[in-house]
Amino acid sequence: MTNSRDVADEPGAAGRGVVTITDVANAAGVSASTVSYVITGKRTISPATRRRVEETIRALGYRRRTGSPAPAPARAGVLAVAMPLRDEQHVGVELEFFSAAAGAARRLGFDLLLVTDDDGTAALHRVTSAALADAVIVLDAGDGDPRVPVLLASGRPAVLVGAPGRRHGLAALTLDFMPSGKDCATHLADLGHRSVAHLEPAAALPSHRRRYLEDFTAGFGTTATRRGVRTVSRPCAPEEAARCLDDLLADDGPTALVVHDEIALPHVLAAVADRGMRVPEDISVVAVCSSTVADHQRIRPTAVLVPARRLGARAVERAVRQLDGTAAAEPEVVIPRLTPGESTGPAPANGLAPASQAG
């Protein structure tokens, strides 16, 4: 049954101060019981109806809360970490995040519960409705994320990690890659490079990672143009690294590569070596990757390192602060920094040798 005292923690779109479950039902054109079933997952609702209700919950900012003060419930001592499983996993980033999150949780007296699901909503329904966790950390949060309405309706503390767009009062951690792109272009221009290839992920990206890529590309392209550096961007799948380099380096190719995919990085470096080319003497390479992947390369690459460990620890800290009574603050923006390594150097004096001479 629905609870007529369920209200929102923040003003709704109409500025009335509270949003009830009935408001959500009326706006979505469904019954209040249907909204309740979407929130709790107790009954199967058609995908179209469920999507409409979730979008309405998100748009109105509905958040379930009892209408009168109640004693704080006993803690389970568990923080749930929600992450949808995908074919293309950035293992280095994820390992670093979970390792740091587990360490921070242990110091603060909590365990972690990993929650996986194709879209994350059914699993979150189970965790929040059964009170299996005190708070939820949501990875890979993007614009219009279907997990946000579930969290809003549950009333439980939550931290979104990604690029969640409108948050409706939920705590959030996000990365800003635009300064990273600018730093990368500046670094290569200062070394005398005037032609750079940006190798992008070939696989389809979730919304937050696509936004990270777009922000990096915007910062990189703007700065490169200002510094007189020609750039070309193209997708490069790990298994296509050799052919990708053949195409790029056929005629007067770039003197530097920016590899924006930690899965493809070792394949690109191997393809460069197979051509008889030296890094950085013949071609410079900048990576966008985790510290774990950077540490496992033959030489330490110059890299924009994704601060996954910092994100993991901060997500746990912000979740526990909410449990201790601190309201969700403004989103925390973290900027990945370019770390100099051994894979970049001055541009070759006469440009890159033709492919026929490189081997």
Automatic annotation (TrEMBL):
One of its GO terms (molecular function) is DNA binding. It holds the Pfam family Peripla_BP_3. Keywords: DNA-binding, Transcription, Transcription regulation. The keyword S-adenosyl-L-methionine does not apply. The keyword Transcription applies. Residues 331-359 are annotated as: Disordered. Transmembrane segments: none annotated. It comes from the Bacteria. PROSITE patterns: HTH_LACI_1, HTH_LACI_2. Residues 19-66 form the HTH lacI-type domain. InterPro entries: HTH_LacI, LacI/GalR-like_sensor, Lambda_DNA-bd_dom_sf, Peripla_BP_I. This is LacI family DNA-binding transcriptional regulator. It comes from Amycolatopsis melonis.
